[in-house]
Amino acid sequence: MALTYLHTMVRVRDLDASIAFYKLFGLEETRRYDNDGGRFTLLFMSVPGQENSHIELTHNWDGDDGLPSDSRHFGHLAYGVDDIYATCQHLMDNGVTINRPPHDGRMAFVRSPDNISIELLQNGDPLAPAEPWTSMGNTGHW
Amino acid sequence: MALTYLHTMVRVRDLDASIAFYKLFGLEETRRYDNDGGRFTLLFMSVPGQENSHIELTHNWDGDDGLPSDSRHFGHLAYGVDDIYATCQHLMDNGVTINRPPHDGRMAFVRSPDNISIELLQNGDPLAPAEPWTSMGNTGHW
Fold first, then answer.
1. Which of B8, B47, B50, B141 should be substituted to probe chain A, the one whose Cβ sees the most A Cβ atoms within 10 Å?
2. What domains appear along chain A, each with residue ranges and CATH number?
């Protein structure tokens, strides 16, 4: 096979905050490269046991003025989860806003510390509608 | 496994131009969803034979004013290739600018029609340095 998908890269302002955020979903740190000369860190995180699931977090130690606070240019990263309600509750318990709650038991959106849009999809059939999700309002866009 | 990586989504202005662009690398269209009511198309493309290699192209039929011409917010999509010189030549022959030529026989960057940054990495060991790549200048940033 001549072509291999490798990773999706996103730039982050605060590396520790981003690592903590992605760990909330269950991603694990798999590789780290600190470049003292270039003053940047590349940190790879993956879904345990799943090949080709890498995201690369690029952190420029001296900041990155080119990072807008929001962007429609990039779409989102998507992850399937076994219990979308439990996942969203876990995120809320850790201070993450559920921008698009799983009203339908199927789909939710949150934002990373750098406003990267993250889609969560229930694996298999949607869950039965349940509170507080059914009546929870949307926050911002995603 | 509770978590599954699904895809990376990017928004595109011209769906046909983007499909043609990603096909230059060898990606194939795997799923298409046209939504007449919402006036958008979701088009999935994957690396043949490789699971979890999906990109989702989102095309809003009436345009998307939120799409900036460039963004540092999103990093890049990355693909491994068997012959980075042949891949770059094929892209050039089809009108694609090689923003960062593979000077080192190892790494190149191009931009999609929507300025999404695409990284190409030589699979395995780097190729021996060769012209015209060694002396080809960079174009813009990536």
1. B8
2. 7-62 (3.10.180.10), 76-136 (3.10.180.10)
